[in-house]
Amino acid sequence: MTNPAIIDCDPGHDDALAVLLAVADPRIDLLGVTTVAGNQTLDKTTVNAQKILALAGASDVPVAAGCERPLVGELTVADDIHGESGLDGPDLDGPVAGTVGVHAVELMRRLIERSPEPVTLIALGPLTNVALFLRLHPDTARNVRRVVFMGGSTERGNTTPYGEFNIVTDPEAADIVLRSGLPVTMIGLNVTHRALATTRIIDEFRGLGTRVGTVCAELMTFFADAYQRNFGFAHPPVHDPVAVACVLEPAVVRSVPAPVVVELGGAYTRGATVADLHRRTGLPVNAEVAVDLDVDAFWSMLIGAVRALGMPRTAVTSQDR
């Protein structure tokens, strides 16, 4: 079964790997890529998405830029992790296709309305675009199969003590998504911190002997240095590809149903995702919450996808999608 999907992202090193996985695996029909400000400013995340699609030989996938700031407050980027460009490390200069010239939310609407099958929204950055789409186009949202987002945690955060970056950047947007009534899957730090790009994994990417494999190795090498410097991690976690892997092969990510709310007002906990795994609050279940990852299967899937991108493939036009 092929899953028609839209990726909303803020590339970002791990976003880049997630997009490559979605392009390479035939079980996803990537209808479009929309961008949001987060890891870097909107202009940079949009160019980065275009560069990754070009690297993957998928410049025909339509790209649209979205929101340049969160619904409430100011944007704070993660240049300490992703660098000045948002994709520091490899040389990704080269020609890319332009954007489609409409706002990300409008592209979402068009692609979802045109799709004969329900569409999965895979959100890899702050949920600003997705929340705005749900608010502006509730009728179209009925053709969304589910929202799978990388964000939050059942444990500690990485931006504040209990807040993960994507949710802290726009808590109000995350709150809208979690209260939307749509099927929602949360892929949090508690699981993505198991997807570590060890030295062996980086060597496997480099050992593929392809342009895409080399770029992945260089991305992860920069990412590793940033995580060592900022968090003391021996190896960097690649968060976003886990969300794509969950769509491709649900057995790779084990999840449990639970109520999840976003803390909007806490002086020290704003942006925390409160996942009630033991059902103590009496709130209704509104999400599938990832709790475990088959690490070997995940890396086999991702490395296999990057390997496939180094092989000749039949060109796919946007009309075929």
Automatic annotation (TrEMBL):
- Which Gene3D superfamilies is this protein grouped with? Ribonucleoside hydrolase-like
Task: State the signal peptide span.
Answer: none
Spell out the Pfam families in the cross-references: IU_nuc_hydro
Q: Please give the InterPro entries that the UniProt record associates with this protein.
A: Inosine/uridine_hydrolase_dom, IUNH, Ribo_hydro-like
Q: Where are the transmembrane segments?
A: none
A molecular function GO annotation = hydrolase activity
Protein name from the UniProt record: Nucleoside hydrolase
What is the organism field in this record?
A: Paractinoplanes aksuensis
Its taxonomic placement starts with: Bacteria, Bacillati, Actinomycetota, Actinomycetes, Micromonosporales
